[in-house]
Write a structure and sequence with these properties.
- This protein has nine helices and 14 strands.
- With about 300 residues, it is α+β, with helices and mostly antiparallel strands.
- Strands 1, 5, 6, 7, 8 and 9 form a six-stranded mixed sheet that branches.
- A hairpin with a 5-residue loop joins strand 3 and strand 4.
- Helix 3 packs across helix 5, helix 3 packs antiparallel against helix 6 and helix 7 packs across helix 8.
- The two termini are about 25 Å apart.
């Protein structure tokens, strides 16, 4: 069975600035969008405030368009008949609210204007609470900082190859994306754009949102955060109100219970058990990352998750 593509965590301004695409080389093979910092993206996990949605189709065949706002701008989402689970979910979600979505990215170029557009086609979209949004925000900031540093180091050494980046700690996918971006981008992206985004993210996460990190910032370039009322996750039409701390405890217990042979908990079993407990795959992925960051779990391989 073929493994799913990694769902990257990327702020909207980096994703929307992407103009490069790696087309599939075989039938039904994956295509990739390459961001300015070299992320080789097929799928993303995004989170933010769903600020608007509209059914541009009809009652017989819904086609939803929407915007999800993060600290740097907006993701544009499109949900059609091939994303039935996401279509049912978005129909029941009222705006504005915090949401998370996993889905594939699609790049369109207008042949007349040459302008490039990026849309996300969610496979799943769920309502989340502020704690899960903040957890996503922190993880995305960390990954953006790592990408920024790796890309900057590679851009200063023109002779570097993908295998050299792997030796320095990048994954093969990260290394390939960085080399592709360096070879095909007309100019090196402005680091300050992404540093400002990181500053905006940290201001949301820290108690004093007016804290000054001493970085130049065009305040008008960062969107105001919409006011969001208390958010609850929706599973099968039922609202459940659980903090991500409670979800961590539940998943840790599941990992212990499913680790029957010392190899760890099989991911497919873990997903089924989590779903039965009303925990979506998006929440499971996000909480798993939090637990790995805390050093409480690790991945022996792609198919298992093990408690330490």
């Amino acid at each position: 069975m073929k493994n799913r593509e990694t769902a990257w965590r990327i702020f909207s301004n980096e994703l929307n600035a992407s103009v490069l695409e790696i087309q599939a080389t075989e039938e039904k093979g994956p295509s990739y969008v390459v961001t300015p910092l070299g992320a080789k993206v097929n799928r993303v996990l995004i989170a933010g405030t769903l600020t608007e949605k509209e059914n541009v189709g009809g009652e017989e065949e819904a086609m939803w368009k929407g915007r999800i706002q993060d600290v740097s701008g907006n993701y544009f989402i499109s949900v059609g008949r091939y994303q039935q689970e996401a279509s049912r979910a978005i129909a029941s979600i009222e705006v504005p609210c915090f949401v998370a979505a996993t889905g594939r990215v699609k790049l369109y170029t207008n042949p007349e204007t040459g302008k490039t557009y990026i849309t996300v086609r969610p496979e799943q979209i769920v309502k989340i609470d502020e704690g899960l949004r903040d957890a996503w925000l922190l993880e995305t900031a960390k990954q953006t900082w790592t990408r920024l540093n790796n890309f900057k180091a590679a851009s200063q050494d023109p002779g570097l190859k993908a295998e050299d980046l792997v030796k320095k700690g990048s994954s093969p996918a990260e290394a390939e994306g960085i080399i592709y971006a360096l070879e095909h981008n007309d100019e090196v992206p402005d680091s300050m754009t992404y540093i400002k985004t990181l500053q905006a993210a940290l201001r949301v996460l820290l108690p004093d949102r007016e804290i000054d990190f001493g970085l130049p910032e065009d305040v008008a370039s960062m969107p105001d955060e919409p006011e969001v009322t208390e958010s609850m996750d929706i599973q099968d039409g039922h609202a459940s109100k659980r903090s991500y701390g409670q979800l961590e405890d539940i998943i840790l217990d599941m990992l212990s219970e499913l680790d029957r042979d010392g190899k760890g908990a099989p991911r497919d079993e873990l997903e089924r058990r989590a779903e039965a407990e009303g925990i979506s795959s998006i929440e499971l992925e996000e909480i798993s990352n939090i637990l790995m960051d805390k050093g409480l779990v690790y991945e022996p391989n792609l198919r298992y998750l093990k408690r330490i």
